Amino acid sequence: MKNNLWFLTEERPKKEVxxxxxxxxxKDYGFACFIDSLRILPILENGKFTFTYEVxxxxxxxxxxxxxxxxxxxxxFTDFLIFYQEKEPIQSDTPIYAxxxxxxDDKESRNTGVYQRCSxxxxxxxxxxxxxMIMLYNLQVEQKEKPTExxxxxxxxxxxxxxxxxGKKLDDILFVPFENIDEIIDFKANMRKxxxxxxxxxxxxxxxKIEISGRLYKSGGLSHDPNIGALSIICAVLRKLxxxxxxxxxxxxxxxxxxxxxxxxxxxxxxLDISLQNLTIPKAELNENYWKYxxxxxxxxxxxxxxxxxxxxxxxxxxxxxxxxEKGYFxxxxxxxxxxxxxxxxxxxxxxxxxxxxxxxxxxxxxFGRSEVINIxxxxxxxxxxxxxxxxxYDFIEKNYIKKYYPKFKILRTVVLYGSTERQIIxxxxxxxxxxxxxxxxxxxxxxxxxxxxxxxxxFWN
Length: 462
Known about the structure:
The protein has eleven helices and 23 strands. It has helices spanning about 15-30, 110-125, 150-160, 180-190, 225-240, 265-270, 300-310, 345-350, 385-390, 395-405, 450-460; strands spanning about 5-10, 35-45, 50-60, 65-75, 80-85, 95-100, 130-135, 165, 200-205, 210-215, 215-220, 220, 245-250, 275, 290-295, 315-320, 330, 335-340, 365, 370-380, 410-420, 430-435, 440. Strand 9 (about 200-205) and strand 10 (about 210-215) form a beta hairpin. Helix 2 runs parallel beside helix 3, helix 2 packs across helix 5 and helix 3 crosses helix 5. The two termini are about 25 Å apart.
């Protein structure tokens, strides 16, 4: 038997990302391949979804089929684990790639563009120490011409750790791995200083230890994601370059009660033997499994309807924010991508007015043929009444984005559910239910786009 390619992901798989990974795979393995129009098809058996998707349009004589399954990471999970084997992966199998995908360039955010994702590559080494690690940039905004110092520093750390960068043009002179520890310390010391009041990340080396200053306290606990990423990868690279003595984080802002066994940074600190100044780090036990197949998440429903609409109708998504996945951009009629605002008035929100938070749907689909835009709230079946209530919150997004960029389109609001063994829906606000047995159930007043998508999917398998 030929091997299959298995993509395990928490994200909604995107065709352009799959194409990049196929090209990378073929190049690494020296296989000839052809990539035509890719389609992501839910596999049905007896009219029920099997919770596996098949990708068509990739042809390689060394690959039988390509499958995608939705998984859930137990902590800091990379966006894709890729397996090249015949059977469906289990925990003890070894992936060929661990891939983190981002659409964020340092043009938008210096920190999320690089640091926030670094801890994932440090963390995965606990489970798959030799897996090939890739940072894949799926840029939807123009790449920044002159990279920031933060981005250069973070990317050089990734390269030193052995992470390959895909999807982005890197200057070969600027972007090289660090050769020694002093080079890292000097580079960081010469970067632009942090604003007054912020704790800068700086490294101080003595004969017995390296101290790294960096704030980890945020929102009442150990949750400063960009700094968790930055400090994790700095420490991992120091160890990789041969530092065996003490590494201590200073000016972290934490107290002993903030340091719990389940925090990903504490787990990394255990692995890399990092200490926190004036605190005791508890012995953290890693979860036995890095991932599990997702059989309960609300996004099983929204990702399903998203993929069926895009592969079996002329409809498209113009915004996605599937639970636990990366938030997308809003796409205008002209094809421009714009980030949605988080707050109506940021200053008022900072002063404590929580009503300034903008409520956004989990998915916005567009039906060009019927001139309809569909706002979708995703929920587990047991929380359906909460999902129905949340439909009332979309006035701001509709007025300021949808009506502005799609003025002649009718706007619908609906709920998409996952879960239960129910075989029918009675609430008219619910457009679609994917139940835990894989049964596809349309609501009484399901949008015409949903009806068309499910009919075409069933016809395809019949």
